[in-house]
Amino acid sequence: MRDTAPLLRETDFPALQRTNLQTLQVNLGYLCNLSCTHCHVNAGPKRTEMMSLEVIDLLLTYIDQSNIRRLDLTGGAPEMNPHFRYFVTEARRRNVEVIDRCNLTILEEPGYEDLADFLADNGVYVSASLPCYEEENVNEQRGKGVYQSSITALQRLNALGYGRDEALKLDLVYNPNGAFLPPSQQQLQADYKKQLFEHHGIEFDELLTITNMPISRFGSMLISKGGLDEYLALLKDNFSEANLDSVMCRSLISVDWQGYVYDCDFNQMLDWPMLIGVGGSELIGSDRKRPHLRDLLSSSLEGAPIVIGEHCYGCTAGQGSSCGGALE
Hints:
alpha/beta, 8 strands
């Protein structure tokens, strides 16, 4: 796979600093039952990286010390980590909101038959990937049979109250199936709701549109097709300064499966470590060695600089893009 990281380092993207930390995003491992073409993690069934119980307990300690109120679990398929349920249960016991970034098909895999019930019993917010409401497009991006499996999983979640009960939030996530920006989130949401309800009786809360990042599997595809420069130009041409105030990296940290920390999930995949410090104080990690979560236990992040690159234009192009969907 061809690496875009060296091509993204030189940038004129505006400097960013951290504000108040609100969200702890944790990658529980790269193992996944799918291998999607847009996946910036390069996850798949053959990946073996998996977060240990020791790191998860360290994360719980950090949650206690930092008063984190939102835990965002991702992967791979985060549910395939053997300690997933322990982590969720402990976080919810602390009254922390838990987001499960679910690919839906995992709910239909052998051995995970009771997973949907577990999520509902613990009031977990499900953010589910469904790149289109049409079967052909989904299967093209994610694999044969994925669409029907996803529909079945959504119907199962609806039966438990997801998307219908205010306490059980179900959002869907759209990624473009190619090198273009997402359309209007509001209009696309209306289309999703109409199509999924009319054809499958499916209900959900919101649709979140996320721009494809020119890194990992998607970035490698752009290079192989000679389209990287054109895609980067598209992102820069659609830059919106108004999105700078609400980009997710200002209030979020991303933790990889070993416990190393990054400004966002995208920087994690580029292996660009975050800088830790306040104001003019010495920065842990300024020698580009990866700081670990344990380094944060006695550190404040507010005011620290954020590591930026050309890919950051992906979060500020058009309506903007974050793990919570469009920014505008």
